[in-house]
Amino acid sequence: MNKLAIICPARNTALTIPSLVDSFLHQDGPAQASLHFVISGSDDPTVETVRGFAAKYPEQIFLHIVEEQEGPDGLRKYGIAHSEEPYISFTDADDTLNHDFVKTYVDALDAGADAVDCSCYIDAEGKKPKKHAFRRSDRILTRDQALKWLVGDTFIRGFLPCKAFKREVVQSFGLHFGPGKIFEDAPMVFEAFHRCEKVAYFNRPVYHYYVRKGSFVRSRGIVRAEQHLRSFLALGFLIERMNDPVAMEIYRKSYLRMWWSLWYDVKMSVKSGLPRKEGRRIKKTLKLVVKKGIVNPEDADVIAAKSLLLD
């Protein structure tokens, strides 16, 4: 059995999957990983494309079809539950893996880390790939150090494909982001890091993240700010349920960084038609709940955020 399961949620990505598979098949060193495609609701030949690769590489590439409509969060969790490898990592179907992706993660986890965080290249159309900024030198982080850097969203970003985990730290989760929900990566990483003793942190990039025209990163969706607010709130409610005062202190002290991130999202949503008054309300809700700990149980965003908690 391979050591590392790479979970890839996919929907309508038949055109980009061949590049991902090619990068997977050309990893450094001996084959140590399996690529698990988890597909739901695809209207293009995504299923047929993956089925062809799975038939050609039956010990390395696997196809999972989920009949229920699910978003990336649900598909990733399905992939974890339906794979057996001791280590877990993730990729998006429209990105590619650097040649040392598998070896970097496997070596660090073999050496005793519970999780690994690496940098990535950001590939924008028509531009030279650039390494993600603000990385620190290689080191081993404690749980609390990793949580601080993650919520600070500078030295560690929430992006899942830049991370790998031992299976036991990603076996269960307290939040579920259903279809149409976004900003699910960071809460999932926070919950996994919370179960770790050691997180291996590397400055080098092992992943190519493609920013494409029409992608959400470039979109100005009217719901962007609202959904990011609800992700921030849901993480706080989850930490409250954990009954961990240290984690809660880390969360509350990161308010200013959350505010700046949400400021950008509000700006993008306003450009898509969100009333400015609503944008101000979103930022005010973040301040009340995260900084001051004031929760209005009848607030629509509070209700929506709490609905993401699993029983």
Care to give the gist of this entry?
The chain is α/β, with parallel strands linked by helices and 311 residues long. Helix content is 41%, strand content 19%. Strands 1, 2, 3, 4, 5, 6, 7, 8, 9 and 10 form a ten-stranded mixed sheet that branches.
Structure description:
The chain has 311 residues and is an alpha/beta fold. It has 2 domains: 4-216, Spore Coat Polysaccharide Biosynthesis Protein SpsA, Chain A, CATH 3.90.550.10; 219-306, no CATH class. 41% of the residues lie in helices and 19% in strands. The chain has 11 helices and 10 strands. It has helices spanning 17-25, 46-56, 72-81, 101-110, 143-152, 185-193, 224-242, 245-253, 255-271, 276-291, 300-306, and strands at residues 4-10, 33-39, 61-65, 87-90, 96-97, 115-124, 130-131, 139-142, 163-166, 198-211. Strands 1, 2, 3, 4, 5, 6, 7, 8, 9 and 10 form a 10-stranded mixed beta sheet that branches. Strand 6 and strand 7 (130-131) form a beta hairpin. Helix 9 (255-271) packs antiparallel against helix 10 (276-291). It starts with a strand and ends in a 5-residue tail after the last helix. The mean pLDDT is 94.
